[in-house]
Structures are given as structure tokens and as C-alpha cells.
Amino acid sequence: MKWFTKLIDKMVGTYYEPPKELKKATIVRIGDLQYKTKKELENIGRKIGVELDRRLTKDKLINKIKFKVKSRK
To answer: Phi/psi at 33 (nearest 5 deg)?
Structure first.
């Protein structure tokens, strides 16, 4: 089967799709966190290394993210 894929690659050319990890990082300002949903806040927290519980209030989630960001500096 490898010979067939090599043949197709030679005839058509290869199609390269960059891995998802190489996408541009988005910048989130701390002041903009109040406009995010709880699910978005949870994803932001995971990216910076904090596991958030969506059962908490939105203000508590934002405070945990702020604390983690300030402690990184």
C-alpha cells in the first residue's frame, strides 16, 4: 500500500496541513475575562495550567486565572 501512496504523491503532490499545535496563540487580556463564558474561562485556565471547576461563580474563576497569571511573573 505504501507504493500506491508514493505513486499518488508523485503524481498529485503532497498535501501538507500544519499540526494544530502550531496555530497562533491568542492573547487574552485580563480585563476581557468578564465577557467570556464559563466554558471559555475553563479553556483559558487549562492553557495556563489551572484546572477550573465550572460550578464556581464566574468571578471566582476569573480570580483564580488572575492569581495564576500574577504568580507566573
So the answer is: -65, -30
Instruction: Specify the DSSP element, H or E, that contains 18.
Output: none
Domains of the chain: total: 1
- Average pLDDT of the chain, as a whole number: 82
Could you write out the DSSP letters of every residue in 28-64? --GGGGGGS-HHHHHHHHHHHT----TTS-HHHHHHH
**What pTM did the predictor assign?**
0.63
For 54, residues 6+ apart whose C-beta sits below 8 A from its C-beta are 38, 39, 42, 61
Classify residue 44: in a domain, yes or no.
Answer: yes
- Identify the domain containing residue 66 by its residue range: 28-73
Coil, strand or helix: which one is 4?
A: helix
